[in-house]
Design goal:
By secondary structure, the protein is of the alpha+beta class. Helices cover 25% and strands 32% of the residues. This is Fam-a protein. Keywords: Signal.
């Protein structure tokens, strides 16, 4: 998206909706290699060595904070968020093509899982068929609300919108606190919902979780950052963190859904590209194998099927 277009967007923001440059023109996903497509840079490669203390830090002194923020305008941040989401949607569209898969796990007659590699990254995907086409809107709404596949149906999955670049391109923050762990989790999600046609909708998300160590004295509302520095509970400057995440492409996980309505059913394809897995239980030195990922995906798949078939 060029600078001129960004300027136009801000004039007519209330009338415009973010649309990916590579949205689905039809149900086919085999045309993604057109020469006109934008370069597919691997945004995850720049995230490998991120440091949480670079993001979770006390606010800058007032005299320097405004000066730093002036370096990047809202248009710059919106342009970067749009660029990131364009790349996410491009990979979602490409990897949703099951013809590229090299192995499949058929769970039953309405769902199956497949794997492939893209840009040397493991890509997992599944497809579910719902026999009732009238569920199309309900399915989209529920998938949009969930933080990710594995929190589907969770009561704490909903978050708050802290950025709205366009009506359908937003940054959502979720906070999780657990007395049984030595840290709090702050999740930031860049999420877009794109209606490619009347019967095709894409839901794309890319996220990062930030862990903040907690001091022993929770009653006083004090926390310790990664380096042990005491922070007051309200001292984290979330607005600045969100901006840094976007401008520096700090997102880690990347995933999404393509929902298609047919005359007699709704098909849902889910794709995980470069999703961060814990080590394989059988081999701690290796990333999770296909069998581990399959076993992990079966649980939310069954929850989704049960929810929409009730």
């Amino acid at each position: 998206m060029n600078k001129g277009y960004i300027k136009i967007v801000f004039v007519f923001l209330s009338f415009l909706v973010y649309v990916s440059n590579r949205t689905l023109a039809s149900e086919s996903v085999s045309d993604v290699n057109d020469s006109n497509s934008v370069s597919t840079k691997n945004i995850a490669s720049s995230n490998e060595n991120h440091e949480n203390e670079d993001l979770v830090a006390p606010p800058d002194p007032e005299e320097t904070k405004n000066e730093k923020l002036l370096e990047y305008s809202e248009a710059d941040e919106t342009e970067k968020a749009t660029e990131i989401m364009d790349e996410v949607i491009y990979r979602l569209k490409y990897n949703a093509n099951f013809n590229n898969a090299y192995s499949r796990y058929y769970l039953n007659r309405i769902s199956h899982i497949a794997f492939t590699k893209y840009e040397d990254k493991d890509t997992a995907r599944f497809h579910i068929i719902f026999p009732n086409p009238d569920k199309y809107a309900d399915i989209i709404n529920m998938l949009c609300e969930s933080k990710d596949l594995y929190s589907f149906g969770s009561s704490d999955s909903k978050g708050k919108v802290i950025r709205e670049y366009y009506p359908n391109l937003k940054m959502i923050q979720r906070s999780y606190q657990n007395d049984n762990t030595p840290f709090n989790t702050y999740s930031f999600s860049l999420s877009a919902t794109v209606e490619a046609s009347e019967d095709i909708t894409m839901i794309a998300k890319t996220t990062i979780d930030i862990y903040d160590d907690i001091s022993g004295d929770k009653k006083k509302g004090k926390k310790k950052g990664k380096k042990g520095k005491s922070l007051s509970k309200n001292s984290i400057y979330w607005d600045n963190i969100a901006r840094k995440i976007v401008l520096n492409k700090k997102f880690i996980n990347e995933f999404g859904f393509i929902v298609k309505r047919r005359s007699d059913h709704v098909g849902v394809t889910y794709v995980e590209y470069d999703y961060r897995y814990r080590p394989c239980p059988k081999n701690p030195d290796e990333r999770r194998c296909e069998k581990c990922i399959t076993n992990r995906m079966i649980v939310p798949i069954n929850k989704i099927i049960k929810f929409f078939n009730e």
